[in-house]
């Protein structure tokens, strides 16, 4: 109805405005509200990318576009690792952690100008209305699961946390029932159940959900280990992850050609290579903890990034090429992948946060350093990844009774990072 290009422009503009709101937030609750709005803007923007690629390309051109789409994630992730740490360390004009949000404003402005000139307008041949009930029930399902998992322990598992956990299966079942009923009635639900009968979509979601759950937990623990255990600063922690992001780019660019030759076997091979890289990282920590520096983790992280890039590239082109069953499928698949990734990362972070906090990791000062250096490769919002990872370290500070005071508007760093993390 509105057009994919217009939605993308709206989402990009809203993302820039809400990023400024985050950077200027005077207190934790204002930051939470701004982060929620920023997430909504991102959700409006991102699905239009895959939908536009699907609508405007085909064959080899589409494969190339999807390869660049996947590879771009590796580039921006590598830049985000270093830039996030440098910005916080530099403390430009006394902005501290706020700079990681404010930097998004000029980037969004540049993206708007480029999109206006280069992105063609496309529309679905059969525009669908908004699935209000499906949206509400899916949101309720996510909130009722993630909020108690992330906040329940810190609050002492009060009654409301158990009520929300009990509500989760009810809301999830209701969501499935409503979606099936809408599709049988000939309407377009938020997540059409028939998409799960498409092999490419089904296999893609099967891959992305466990990956996102594990990846969120891995990056969470890795950030805490680098900064709390190895006492790395924000720039050093960011540089440590650059090899993984570089090889992720290489795997993403080479993946489509290999996928055309080896098919789905590339996804399996990529997963195995990634597992080997994770084993190397674990062995490096286990046998070489003392004196471990930026270069010490490079081999394992490089292998891990290569496997991740190849596996992602093996999934995306096939999924979008066969996926989606029609003109609107690219947008539905993009939204589905985004939702699955956010949900999985949230569950991974929630499941790992409790044992990490119980282990007492968190005996360090300078929470501004945590927020800048704890950044996650593969994410599309480096600042949000930083906050998510920093949350675990700061939970340890809370448990140990140590709180550091931010010099802007009197907000504690714990409040800042908690608000950034939990609104994601």
Short characterization:
The protein is mainly alpha-helical. The protein is 75% helix and 0% strand.
Helix content: over 70%
Average pLDDT, all residues: 75
Order of helices and strands: HHHHHHHHHHHHHHHHH
Terminal CA distance = 29 Å
Shape: globular
Major sheet description: none
Folded structure, characterized:
This protein is an all-alpha fold. 75% of the residues lie in helices and 0% in strands. It has helices at 4-23, 28-45, 47-56, 59-90, 99-102, 104-118, 132-151, 159-184, 199-229, 234-240, 242-262, 265-288, 298-322, 329-358, 367-373, 382-399, 413-423. Helix 1 packs antiparallel against helix 3 (47-56), helix 12 (265-288) runs antiparallel to helix 13 and helix 15 (367-373) runs antiparallel to helix 16. The chain is globular. Residues 317-424 have low confidence and may be disordered.
Question: What would the keywords be for this entry?
Answer:
about 425 residues, mainly alpha, about 0% strand
Give the topology, please.
Layout: H1 4-23, H2 28-45, H3 47-56, H4 59-90, H5 99-102, H6 104-118, H7 132-151, H8 159-184, H9 199-229, H10 234-240, H11 242-262, H12 265-288, H13 298-322, H14 329-358, H15 367-373, H16 382-399, H17 413-423
Helix pairs in contact: 1-2, 1-3, 1-6, 2-17, 3-14, 4-10, 4-11, 4-13, 4-15, 7-8, 7-14, 9-13, 9-14, 9-16, 10-15, 11-13, 12-13, 14-16, 15-16, 16-17
